[in-house]
């Protein structure tokens, strides 16, 4: 591996930024595969581009090579994730790059998949191709937080969506919570759902709010082509219902097949329509959430979006299972009798969990705050 000069590093970052832009086109569709983009450059000109659209279909490198014809020989390939070196649903990209005669491959980051984990670049180097990795690595990893976490820890990335008033309340005393925020926020939440592998809620939210957790094409706020992509791969809807309290005639079940996670086996639970039931251990009388996440990761789930009430969201928080909070704040007060953001009793200020706010932005008339627990280990 030859270390690039300062000038070459600037050039590499420029082209990798374009590859990352392409990778984001797969934001809604690649699960369980990572989002990957690729460009091919020859004599200072981009001659090929590609991105991975969905599992089972060609990877980004293959799409980019197809657009170059026989011009890839002697070129530099920029790819956001290390090229694969094994035969899965598709042939290994490493073989295609070697066959094409490329001179140099620059990767944003190494692939955390144990089947690859550096072997892709090693095979390229053995074939006489100059390799380099770590260009815009932070950005490349940020595109696939769930894929990296699942490969390293056997757990999905958990994002908890919360909506509250300026006084930190999420619902009236009677449980009514629709709608605290405005239409722009509801559109943003639809996009969060479309990005996720799984959208997860609890029995109380389904029973009180009649929640369905579907992705609505007309509310995504995307262009026609991107909307079509998003609707082509919908997230799995998961219900945490430890005591099987939600009846089959609930709007949640009528909205389509769902996965119900419970800890109370029932003789009839596997005979309830088109829905699948997953039995996990109990923890203090409730579904063991950690076990549930392990089971979801075993099903190749990368990212979980939790849309639940204060009790279930609070349980995820208390058990240190949250990787990121997305909090929407509406410009209104709900009053002291309204329900809190999380059910999380804290006795002392010293016990208050610390969060790192990573982004704040306006969403219509509301505000969106993205924050991460500071104790979360880097993935």
Overall SS class = alpha/beta
Stretches where pLDDT is under 50 for at least 5 consecutive residues are none
* Shape verdict: elongated
Number of strands: 18
Query: Between the first and last Cα atoms, what is the distance in angstroms?
Result: 25 Å
- Give me the strand/helix succession: HEEHEHEHEHHEEHEHHEHEEEEHEHEEEE
Can you give the mean pLDDT? 89
Strand content: 15-25%
Rounded radius of gyration (Å): 23 Å
Biggest sheet descriptor? 9 strands, mixed
- Helix-residue proportion: 25-40%
Strands in their spatial order, largest beta sheet: 11-10-9-8-14-6-15-18-17
The number of helices is 12
Catalytic activity: 2,5-diamino-6-hydroxy-4-(5-phosphoribosylamino)-pyrimidine + H2O + H(+) = 5-amino-6-(5-phospho-D-ribosylamino)uracil + NH4(+); 5-amino-6-(5-phospho-D-ribitylamino)uracil + NADP(+) = 5-amino-6-(5-phospho-D-ribosylamino)uracil + NADPH + H(+)
Organism: Candidatus Pseudomonas adelgestsugas
Pathway: Cofactor biosynthesis; riboflavin biosynthesis; 5-amino-6-(D-ribitylamino)uracil from GTP: step 3/4; Cofactor biosynthesis; riboflavin biosynthesis; 5-amino-6-(D-ribitylamino)uracil from GTP: step 2/4
Family: In the C-terminal section; belongs to the HTP reductase family.
């Amino acid at each position: 591996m030859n270390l690039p000069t300062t000038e070459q590093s600037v050039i590499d970052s420029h082209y990798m930024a374009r590859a990352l832009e392409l990778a984001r086109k797969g934001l809604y569709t690649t699960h369980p595969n990572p989002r990957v983009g690729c460009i091919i450059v020859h004599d200072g000109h981009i001659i090929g581009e590609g991105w991975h659209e969905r599992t089972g279909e060609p990877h980004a490198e293959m799409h980019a090579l197809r657009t170059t014809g026989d011009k890839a020989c002697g070129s530099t390939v920029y790819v956001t994730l290390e090229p694969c070196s094994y035969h899965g649903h598709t042939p290994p990209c490493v073989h295609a790059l070697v066959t094409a005669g490329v001179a140099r491959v620059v990767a944003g980051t190494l692939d955390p998949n144990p089947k690859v984990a550096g072997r892709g670049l090693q095979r390229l180097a053995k074939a006489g191709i100059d390799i380099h990795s770590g260009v815009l690595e932070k950005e490349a990893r940020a595109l696939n937080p769930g894929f990296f976490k699942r490969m390293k820890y056997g757990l999905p990335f958990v994002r908890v969506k919360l909506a509250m008033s300026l006084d930190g309340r999420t619902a009236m005393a009677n449980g009514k919570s629709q709608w605290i925020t405005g239409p722009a926020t509801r559109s943003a939440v639809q996009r969060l759902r479309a990005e996720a592998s799984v959208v997860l809620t609890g029995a109380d939210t389904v029973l009180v709010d009649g929640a369905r957790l579907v992705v609505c094409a007309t509310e995504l706020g995307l262009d026609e082509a991107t909307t079509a992509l998003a609707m082509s791969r919908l997230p799995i809807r998961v219900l945490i219902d430890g005591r099987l309290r939600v009846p089959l005639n609930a709007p949640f079940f009528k909205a389509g097949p769902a996965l119900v996670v419970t800890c109370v086996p029932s003789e009839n639970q596997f005979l309830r329509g088109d829905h699948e039931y997953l039995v996990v251990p109990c923890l203090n009388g409730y579904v063991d959430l950690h076990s549930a996440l392990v089971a979801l990761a075993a099903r190749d789930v990368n990212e979980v979006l939790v849309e639940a009430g204060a009790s279930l969201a609070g349980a995820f928080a208390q058990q240190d299972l949250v990787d990121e909070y997305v909090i929407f704040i509406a410009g209104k007060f709900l009053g002291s009798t309204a329900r809190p953001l999380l059910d999380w009793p804290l006795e002392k200020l010293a016990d208050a969990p610390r969060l790192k706010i990573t982004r704040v932005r306006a969403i219509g008339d509301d505000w969106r705050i993205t924050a991460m627990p500071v104790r979360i280990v880097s993935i």
